[in-house]
Amino acid sequence: MHFTMRPARALITAAALAVALVPAAAGPAAADPAVSAVGLLPGTTRTLPLGINALGVVVGQASDPERSIYRAARWLPGGWAVELLRLPGETEAVANAINRSGVAVGSSGEHAVRWNSAGTPTGLAGLAGYSDVYATAINGGGVIVGDAWDRSTGDRRGVRWSPGGALTVLPPLPGDVSSSVESISESGVAVGSSRDSSFRERPVRWAPDGSVRALPGPTDAEGRARDINSYGVIVGQLTTSDGSQRPVRWNLDGSVTDLPLLPGGGPLGAALELNDRGAIAGLAQQADGGYAPVRWGVDGSLTVLPPLTGAVSHGWVYDLNEAGTVVGTSGDYLFGPGVRWTFPTK
Fold first, then answer.
1. What SS3 class is residue 243?
2. pLDDT tens string 243-279
3. Is residue 8 classed as helix, strand or coil in its secondary structure?
4. Residue 47 in contact with residue 336, Cβ under 8 Å?
5. Residue 105 near residue 123 (C-beta atoms within 8 A)
6. Which phi and psi (to 5°) does residue 18 adopt?
7. CA angle centred on 172, ends 60 and 221, rounded to 5°
8. Cross-strand partners of 320
9. Residue pair 245/236 in contact by the 8 Å Cβ criterion
10. Cβ atoms of 339 and 345 closer than 8 Å
11. Out of 183, 236, 239, 330, which residue is the most buried by the measure of CB atoms under 10 Å away?
């Protein structure tokens, strides 16, 4: 691929890609969020907003009409867009996440990178034996997580960088062959997945000391943990042997809560983002196979996020901040237009 974005913001499954590109009918909304376009970086025609912090600052990627140049970008709440510099000698970059202090992380070429609040990039350490490394998330303390990937073998390892840049491998479950990290909490607990040699993927969490533990679920289920909040609540998806993919929440007491899908819709969904207030954002399949970007309220109510005017009504969700604002795409799942959904304050 020409760029690297967070696995958490990648496709649900390989099968989902085929139907994700089908225009979906608009679903009922339980609230009245406003949708607005994320502005363009000068010289580009497409935006992909991948992260938003508590102050409403957005980071992501912008591309030209031919999708031949990919540039990391930061958007201030007022819409002003600035490019985040690439590492020397690299031609592309993507910013995947940003913390409250304005420190962003992502990749430039094949290297993981951290941008300070002024936008200056610093390359992060790679992992010996792996061709590519990218950062997916950063917490308020400056601890960063991501993945190392070897393109020749497909092998993947979750990794963590300390605020000082020291690299630690986050291992798969015993007997498994690869791991992938999606997010990290303020206390340093990371979540993601562990995969065995038959490509079965299971949701896991890593304690701050790096030890790994599988999250509960049906014995026949596969899945991935996508996000964790400051309290330790986790969201993601579980896929069972009947082919259904359920958006789920792992609660502090160890129980698993199924989140509702669209009435009359398909059997696939994923909970991708979670904030400390308990709001969750993700995707739910509609009856025609297209995916609707959705938000689940604290009470479990499901809201379909509306399309941008003139866009078909499927899309994708990439991040959710503490104010409940969601960023993603409306229309083409990957090339947008990039949008921001804002909920009324109560």
1. coil
2. 889 999 999 999 999 999 999 999 999 999 999 999 9
3. helix
4. yes
5. no
6. -65, -40
7. 85
8. 326
9. no
10. no
11. 236
Q: What confidence tens digit (pLDDT) does each residue in 83-142 have?
A: 999 999 999 999 999 999 999 999 999 999 999 999 999 999 999 999 999 999 999 999
Question: Could you identify the residue written with the tokens 């990749």?
Answer: 107
* Residue from 260, 181, 257 nearest 224 by CA: 181
Q: Which of 343, 330, 339, 341 is nearest to 298 (CA)?
A: 343
Which residues contact residue 59 at a Cβ distance below 8 angstroms, ignoring those fewer than 6 apart?
49, 50, 51, 52, 72, 73, 74, 75, 84, 95, 96, 97, 98, 104, 106
The 3-state DSSP class for residue 78 equals coil
**Cα dihedral 26, 37, 310, 312 in deg (nearest 10):** -40
CA distance linking residue 7 with residue 90, whole number of Å: 22
**What whole-number distance in Å separates Cα of residue 234 and Cα of residue 250?**
5
Query: 95: which 2 tokens?
Result: 């910013």
**DSSP summary character for residue 305:** P
Give the chain's length: 346
Q: List the alpha helices (DSSP H) in the chain.
A: 14-20
pTM, rounded to two decimals: 0.89
Q: What is the mean pLDDT of the chain?
A: 88
d(C-alpha 10, C-alpha 7), whole Å: 5
**Cβ-contact 33, 342 below 8 angstroms:** yes
Output the CA torsion sign for 327, 306, 223, 260: positive
Read off the pLDDT of residues 192-245 as tens digits, 9 standing for 90 and up. 999 999 999 999 999 999 999 999 998 888 999 999 999 999 999 999 888 889
Amino acid found at 315: G
Nearest to 170 by CA among 196, 149, 191: 191
Six token digits for residue 208: 């701050």
Element (H, E) at 14: helix 14-20
Strands (E), 189-287: 190-195, 201-206, 212-214, 222-228, 234-239, 245-250, 256-258, 269-274, 280-285
Closest Cα partner for 131 from 154, 99, 98?
Answer: 154
Based on DSSP, count helices (H) and strands (E) in the chain, helices before strands.
1, 28
